[in-house]
Description:
- It is built from 3 helices and 8 strands.
- The protein is of the alpha+beta class.
- 23% of the residues lie in helices and 36% in strands.
- The protein has an 8-stranded mixed sheet, with helices on both faces.
Amino acid sequence: MFEPVPAYRSSHFRIKFATAPWERDGTAALRRQVFCIEQGIFEGDDRDAIDAAAVPICALSTLGGAPDAVVGTVRIHETTDNPGEWWGSRLAVARDHRRIGALGAGLIHVAVASAHARGCTRFLAHVQSANAILFQALHWTSLAEIELHGRPHHLMQADLAHYPAMADPEHGLVTLLKQAA
């Protein structure tokens, strides 16, 4: 009798700007899954006017070293009325990858560091209250507690000193899955 083969688990992930059409499609699908289906914050689709100017960032799982699937996303944009002020939003990680702590942290790092390279002087985000502790551990400060989309959030600001400018976010960074001892 054969034992079942465990599901393949990627050993490393690439976090980068979503440049290929399949990466952009994957970020949109993941956002719909998380914000529309799982959390019920939006009905049908979460796209808004910000998407026209935003840069989507993706976390890609790998299979044999090649990109395989979008398992995380966030978007960034510079405000038009306040040059140098950038925002991050729609941070999402696929349900079966949420226990891989490096994905959320990696997405946040690429978001802030790539904006920093583009002249960011202030980086802000509305963060769901349940995730504020993660952001604080990554050198963010809570400026205010607010309600957004019927849920508690924190208006948070990144400490740019902890996010050196990333000149090549189209290639991004690679994060490794830590193996259990």
